[in-house]
């Protein structure tokens, strides 16, 4: 996405966001932007301030300082029309336990009807939505009888029933088994493809961020220390590669700063006798752990190389 | 359609759904039946005891007291309790996350709790009409009085419940509201004429809507001669209207301010923190 296009179509624009609780600065200058249709993962260890950040953007919490624009509006002063364009899925819900699934979804959808635009009919058709999140056969069940994974998919359904232009998901899969997690990821993919919605999700699970997001923002030490695609991040962080090959039945391993040059030399020297060549970049997992460790020990250092 | 108007309409149907949930929930029904049943038993046991110097039985007078408590005490208590419960489980936060959701939520609450109170009143009245003698119902004037006492009473008490519900931190503390209201009932002339109390307690009792609700109920349902035991030997209907209206206006002005302040402070982390605390302690 080009810089100009993004600035025209900017859904989230955060700069210098600060949040202080008592004497502690939890957020010490968070800055990032998101364009229309992007799926962003805010990744960070527990206590990094992900929930704080997302709740400020949702308009549920007042910030200490900084400039925040969500769909062109300061969330601290977002009115009901602004609210209608956002969708919120919190870390955990237990509400409306006595309601039937379909009844609840239909009821909450009603509030969005006046906010339809010529290009976008609100709310989402309830039966269609139930099918999208895979809850059709549970439509008449009471909410409290749903399993953890089903409840979470209902939460997402409620979050998107108004067909939001921007959806917030806070740790959407915390406490899921692998099966539920995979089903959930499918729902998010479907949503991003079909609805062209911008999605900001938080997670402390790198694997999840990699699977779901176009872009990963790493939050540690109170600031965004890295911002880019999974690929860009590991490229920027890992300057070293591990090169493995075999020659004449013997195996070799070499750590190289410039793997391309090294391999070029290798072939020039030995030509066809090189076999089983393997070049492996440091894994994103290792990258992430190193970044977080560094930020927590010596304060945030932004990886300017990938700050897009 | 206007979003506010639509939210009000959504709130009306929300109230209907909540009422249906209460009426089909075994626990709620059992609580309700035990409560009403207890009151009925108290009425029946005293139905042949005449109040001295009158043609009205003690049972009849108790029935009228129960009606006053339905509106003056349970409306406040239910409203406060639901609000605290809904804040605790995140229902309120959900309302906040959708456009005009708080408006719909409140309309729904008012509808479902009003309906619940009216059902309790109707059940008590119906049982009483068959079981105790001396009830002055059947006159158009009596019905009319009962109607305005109920409407003004709910207007005075529901916002009060909403304010209390916004101020109390969790469902364990709402028992305190019950105790306070019970104490208030003791000085509100519900169980015996307020004129028997020391003067300063009489004045205290007459500040709150519960006394006036009771007085209004008695004026609607007891023979006119019974007014002799009241303050000033009169039903004081104009004063009843004035005081209940004053409480209603005060509540309707105050409740939105307090509710808004409470709702503004709600966030996912607050809900989660409260839950953690509740699970630990
Ligand atoms: N209301 C609050 N008051 C004081 N400290 C808070 C409050 N909310 C969060 N914190 C602290 O801020 C830090 C970040 O919390 P949070 O945003 O929940 O992190 P995350 O979601 O990344 O786990 C934590 O150390 C937490 O204890
Ligand atoms: Mg969190």
Automatic annotation (TrEMBL), chain B:
Keyword tags: Membrane, Transmembrane, Transmembrane helix
Domain of life: Bacteria
Membrane-crossing residue ranges in chain numbering: 29-51, 63-80, 113-137, 144-168, 174-195, 207-227, 239-259
Listed GO MF terms: ABC-type transporter activity
UniProt domain ABC-2 type transporter transmembrane: residue ranges: 82-249
Localization annotation: Membrane
GO CC terms, sorted: membrane
InterPro entries xrefs: ABC2_TM (IPR013525), Nod_factor_ABC_transporter (IPR051784)
Main subcellular location: membrane
Topological category with respect to the lipid bilayer: Multi-pass membrane protein
Protein's name according to its UniProt entry: ABC transporter permease
Organism in which the protein naturally occurs: Actinocrinis puniceicyclus
């Amino acid at each position: 996405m080009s810089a100009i296009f993004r600035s025209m179509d900017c859904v989230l624009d955060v700069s210098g966001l600060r949040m202080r609780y008592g004497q502690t600065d939890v957020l010490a200058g968070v800055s990032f932007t998101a364009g229309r249709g992007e799926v962003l993962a805010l990744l960070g260890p527990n206590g990094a301030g992900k929930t704080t950040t997302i709740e400020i953007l949702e308009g549920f919490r007042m910030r200490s300082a900084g400039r925040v624009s969500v769909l062109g509006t300061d969330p601290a002063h977002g009115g009901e029309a602004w609210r209608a364009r956002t969708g919120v899925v919190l870390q955990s819900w237990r509400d409306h336990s006595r309601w039937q699934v379909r009844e609840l979804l239909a009821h909450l959808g009603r509030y969005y009807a006046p906010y339809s635009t010529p290009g976008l009919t609100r709310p989402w058709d309830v039966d269609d939505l139930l099918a999208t999140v895979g809850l059709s056969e549970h439509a008449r069940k009471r909410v409290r009888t749903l399993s953890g994974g089903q409840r979470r998919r209902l939460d997402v359904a409620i979050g998107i029933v108004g067909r939001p232009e921007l959806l917030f998901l806070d740790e959407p899969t915390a406490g899921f088994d692998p099966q539920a997690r995979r089903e959930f990821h499918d729902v998010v993919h479907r949503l991003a493809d079909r609805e062209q919605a911008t999605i900001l999700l938080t997670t402390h699970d790198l694997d999840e961020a990699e699977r779901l997001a176009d872009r990963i923002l790493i939050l540690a030490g109170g600031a965004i220390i890295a911002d880019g695609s999974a690929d860009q991040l590991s490229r920027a962080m890992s300057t070293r590669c591990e090169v493995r090959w075999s020659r004449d039945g013997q195996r070799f391993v070499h750590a190289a700063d410039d793997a391309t040059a090294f391999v070029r030399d290798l072939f020039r020297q030995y030509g066809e006798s090189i076999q089983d060549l393997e070049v492996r970049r440091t894994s994103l997992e290792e990258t992430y752990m190193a970044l977080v460790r560094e930020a927590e020990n010596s304060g945030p250092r932004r990886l300017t190389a990938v700050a897009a | 359609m206007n979003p506010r108007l639509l939210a009000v309409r959504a709130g009306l149907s929300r109230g209907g759904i909540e009422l249906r949930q209460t009426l089909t929930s075994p626990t709620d029904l059992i609580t309700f039946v035990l409560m009403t049943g207890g009151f009925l038993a108290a009425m029946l046991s005293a139905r042949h005891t005449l109040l001295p110097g009158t043609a009205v039985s003690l049972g009849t007078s108790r029935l009228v007291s129960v009606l006053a408590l339905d509106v003056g005490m349970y409306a406040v208590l239910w409203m406060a309790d639901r609000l605290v419960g809904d804040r605790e489980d995140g229902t309120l936060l959900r309302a906040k996350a959708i456009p005009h959701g708080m408006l719909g939520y409140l309309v729904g609450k008012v509808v479902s709790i009003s309906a619940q109170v009216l059902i309790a009143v109707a059940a008590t009245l119906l049982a009483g009409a068959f079981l105790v003698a001396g009830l002055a119902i059947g006159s158009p004037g009596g019905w009319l009085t009962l109607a305005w006492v109920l409407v003004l009473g709910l207007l005075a008490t529901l916002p009060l419940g909403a304010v209390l519900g916004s101020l109390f931190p969790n469902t364990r503390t709402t028992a305190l509201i019950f105790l306070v209201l019970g104490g208030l009932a003791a000085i509100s002339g519900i169980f015996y004429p307020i004129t028997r109390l020391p003067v300063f307690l009489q004045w205290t009792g007459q500040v709150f809507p519960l006394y006036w609700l009771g007085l209004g109920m008695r004026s609607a349902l007891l023979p006119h001669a019974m007014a002799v035991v009241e303050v000033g030997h009169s039903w004081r209907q104009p004063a009843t209207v004035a005081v209940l209206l004053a409480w209603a206006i005060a509540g309707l002005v105050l409740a939105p301010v307090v509710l808004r302040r409470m709702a503004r402070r709600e966030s996912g982390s607050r809900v989660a923190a409260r839950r953690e605390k509740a699970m630990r302690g």
